Amino acid sequence: MNVLIDYIGLAPVQWLWIFLAAVLIGLSRTAISGFGMLAVPVLATIFGGKESTGIILPMLITADIFAISYFHKKADRKTFSHLLPWAFGGLAIGMIVGNAINDRQFQIIIGSIVFVCVLILVLAEIKGNGLKIPDNILVYALIGTTVGFASMVGNSAGPIFWIYLVARSMKKTEFMGTSALFFFIMNVTKLPLQIFVWDNIRLNTLVPALIMIPVIIGAAFAGTFVIRKINEKVFKYIVIAMILAAAVRLLV
């Protein structure tokens, strides 16, 4: 009962932000990938850095499952197979760092990662299809480890991995399917680490995720139609500006 009281006691505006985060996460899996990044600093501001990662992870896994079911035929496993071993190493580093810092430091790291990811998104927009990344073990190690660390600490590794996909000139559906499968693997791997090592996934942290499952699925389903109707480039610029503002809010 106390668990439920903790979250029933949230102010309406806080529940509104949780609802917005769920919508953004759902849309990010089937419409515009950058949407989900905005949910990270929003929830970190409400719940604190480390605690927010335990709240958002079950929401991300829910969205991943929907995205895989929708795009599973388009996922290209070979594209990220070279990154996985390094990404698991990055998860381990992130787990150790997360255990050694306080919540304010956690927020600063999340804000910094999100800020860098915004710059990466902007770079990808400027370079477009001209962006190229060499194929060698050093690149795999750098990208994979960075993705794993950013995923563990901030749930914000998307743009780093997307740069890797963009450099391979993937079509939209291949991009979404490959990204969904990769981050599903990452997020499921993080689950026992956050339950047993960080102890930030408990019954009370699952309450918002369970309540928001219909919202996440509804937003993901709506995203399959929204993507056909909107000017993706204009909307992406708006999202990038919002993510940047949220990251700055965490850093100051």
Strand share of the residues?
Answer: under 5%
End-to-end gap:
36 Å
Low-confidence stretches: 1-5
Count of discrete domains: 1
Major beta sheet summary = none
Mean pLDDT: 81
Structural description of this entry:
Helix content is 83%, strand content 0%. With 252 residues, the protein is mainly α. The protein has one domain (2-251). α4 packs across α11 (203-229).
List the helices and strands and how they pair.
Layout: H1 2-8, H2 12-30, H3 35-47, H4 49-71, H5 77-81, H6 84-100, H7 103-127, H8 137-154, H9 158-166, H10 172-197, H11 203-229, H12 232-251
Sum up the structure in keywords:
252 residues; mainly alpha; 12 helices; 83% helix; 0% strand; globular; disordered N terminus
Quick overview:
The protein is mainly α.
